[in-house]
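Working notes for the structural subgroup meeting. M.R. asked for a predicted model of this chain before we commit to crystallization trials. I am recording the input and output together here so anyone reviewing the notebook later can reproduce the run.

Input as submitted:
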Amino acid sequence: MPKNAPNARICRDCDGFASAKVTLGGRNRHGHLHTITTHCPACHGTGTAPARRPRPTDWEVAA
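Returned structure, recorded in token form:
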């Protein structure tokens, strides 16, 4: 892996696809679909996850 590659933290819930258009069914008088935009509830539409803090159980103890 190159050293200049960004360290992306992709959201585990949406896999980076944070927003989606959902059709409500039906069309308006101009022929357009009625849609709404939904966002991932875990990352709030950003597609990235916050940095995880290490828990004490994640640390290795060298004896």
